[in-house]
């Protein structure tokens, strides 16, 4: 399983120092919206053509027109339908305006035609492996985010201050060695292992 994503890109400037966020194509939501809009538009167009051909309008359209004419605007069903439409619209706007691919951390660009991204799980595994190499560390948990790497380490011998200092140095070097466009801030917490018995 590949942990680094590469993308050939020709629209980047020659002096690009880092990759921007990776944008998700979001084919499934776009496909669902396209199918629903096409089906609704086709059904409405068919009904309008039928009315123009002196045939009665479909029952659903007559019922909908009557309901909209008779129900006041403060009716519960009207407000619920409006709230649903607003929520769907905001969701579609959020999908259109946000990059997605939150699991990929953009990396620096060694060449303007190549974009690379490192998966968060892989970055967390690298930091965990480097932290486990520090003397006195018994276990490590790493949560990698875009702006912060939260590391919780448990030490079973050595002074906590010494372990914390070594971990801080090692993990800072490891974060810079990942080659990320924006190096996340290190949030380090070191605790003593619970004594048995």
TrEMBL record:
Classification via Pfam families: DUF6286
The organism's place on the tree of life at top rank: Bacteria
Name by which UniProt lists this protein: DUF6286 domain-containing protein
Domain DUF6286: 87-190
Transmembrane segments: 28-49, 77-98
Keyword list, A-Z: Membrane, Transmembrane, Transmembrane helix
Phylogenetic placement of the source organism: Bacteria, Bacillati, Actinomycetota, Actinomycetes, Kitasatosporales
